[in-house]
Amino acid sequence: MNTVNEFPFDTRGILVAGRWRPAASGAELELLNPSDGQRLAPIARGQAEDVAAAVDAAQAALDGPWGAMSALERGRVLHAMGLRVLAMADELARLEALDVGKPLRQGRADAVALARYLEFYGGAADKVMGQTIPFANGYTAFSWREPHGVTAHIVPWNYPMQIIGRSVGAALAMGNACVLKPAEEACLTALAFARIAEESGLPSGALNVVPGLGEEAGAALAAHPGVRHISFTGSVEVGALIQAAAARHAVPVTLELGGKSPQIVFDDADLDAALPFLVNAGIQNAGQTCSAASRILVQQGVYRQVRERMAERYRALRVAPALDDGDVGPLISARQRQQVNRCLARAHHDGLPVAASATLPSSLPAGGFYVAPTLVADVPPEHPIAQDEIFGPVQALIPFTDEADALRIANGTAYGLVAGVWTRDGSRGLRMARRLRCGQVFINNYGAGGGIELPFGGVKLSGHGREKGFDALYGFSALKTVAIKHD
Ligand code: NAD
Hints:
The longest helix has 21 residues, at 104-124. Helix 1 (48-63) runs parallel beside helix 8 (214-223) and helix 10 (271-283) crosses helix 11 (300-316). The strands form five sheets. The protein has a seven-stranded mixed beta sheet with strand order 14-15-16-13-12-17-18, sandwiched between helices. A six-stranded mixed beta sheet has the order 9-8-7-10-11-19, with helices on both faces. Strands 5-6-20 form a three-stranded antiparallel beta sheet. It is built from 16 helices and 20 strands. It folds into two domains: 4-257, Aldehyde Dehydrogenase, Chain A, domain 1 (3-Layer(aba) Sandwich); 262-451, Aldehyde Dehydrogenase, Chain A, domain 2 (3-Layer(aba) Sandwich), CATH 3.40.309. The chain has helices at 48-63, 65-68, 71-87, 89-100, 104-124, 160-173, 188-199, 214-223, 236-248, 271-283, 300-316, 334-349, 384-387, 403-410, 426-435, 471-475, and strands at residues 14-16, 19-21, 28-33, 38-44, 131-133, 139-147, 150-154, 177-181, 207-209, 229-233, 253-256, 262-265, 295-299, 354-357, 374-376, 394-400, 418-422, 440-443, 463-464, 477-485. By secondary structure, the chain is of the alpha/beta class. Nicotinamide-adenine-dinucleotide binds next to helix 8, helix 9 and helix 12.
């Protein structure tokens, strides 16, 4: 039991080679509870020395028992981890509520998704096939997939469990050994996950965890020559630094850098079906979601109706501390709240109408990082509120005239992650799917309930590489080709 707070483990640990210990320097950081702004728990402030030890430990695991395990055995360990995560879903949801400010139901859904990733990749571990290649007479040629080696996983604070599941889960399934750098704002479920992995029989060193600051532990990890693949989710600015660091060692990267994703509502849409998705995809996790539908494009014939019906839902949203399990919790930090408030101030300054905003109850803890969910109407497509990733519970309603206009607006940002199309015209849905410049398109739904089986990632500033689904296993492995000359 942690002597510093009520958590069932010491939150100050770094996990290297199966041993929990403080940062080599002894330095610590403090997590805050976003719901009340109070100190939550101390964590280790890992630095370059800790990162180097973690990379060495991962390499030793590859050269040792972890590297010797068969794909079937790796899959079984992942399955065991998944079952344990499921059994602990309520506890994990509570940790996430305290740490991220995420309402309990949403945290629980993340825990269930983490379990599902482990189940999916556990099952897939021994199903990654090579090919026999038709080649010149006198040869037999074939290929197989091998792990990269040590993989780095630099994770943000918004969906720690889901992002760990999709990146660490897939990397372990392929036989890589991982160094995980969780975000300095929220890392309790990363630490809990590492304990679950240990208890489920994952060999020492296959997963190492070094909490710390981005510019210290994160930068050291991205620059370490022993790392052979980097998976990063976060801001565009840091993504560029990661790719530059990786280039120095010719290391592949997967970058998932967020978006400005639209849901596009045509006049013929089933509005009753669309409405919950239109709002939920904007306010889930207080809008701090890479695939948040922060733009709602609505054809003129139903614009007024959609505006009114969305506004009604906004007014009914319950903003509450995370443990009270409302619809919307606080943002992660005072800094994030400031960023969102700045965007809202700009919209106000430019005279954009607020269609509705939720009420912040006076009972909310004064120190919490709350923002009232806000629906801004009649937003010109080029306005910053329709262009910049706000990462808060703010949605921009944008009217459009026809299909071409919708496409022009939808494709008219620097991002390209996800899009939703609501129409009863099947041909139009498919035409839009072909022409939208993004990584995933959902027709008459949005997000497909998480869809961990569905390859996910962006184009343009949203990044490159694919996580989730079977494709992630290709990203976390390298193809080796063998050609045999014979009679
Ligand atoms: P960030 O990119 O700074 O942090 C993400 C992760 O990268 C964290 O683990 C952080 O410690 C690490 N990191 C930071 N600097 C680093 C460096 N120099 N080298 C290596 N690692 C480093 O994101 P943020 O500051 O937490 O959020 C800023 C904005 O980024 C948000 O407002 C949002 O717009 C966007 N964001 C997007 C996502 C997403 O899911 N795509 C997630 C978080 C934040």
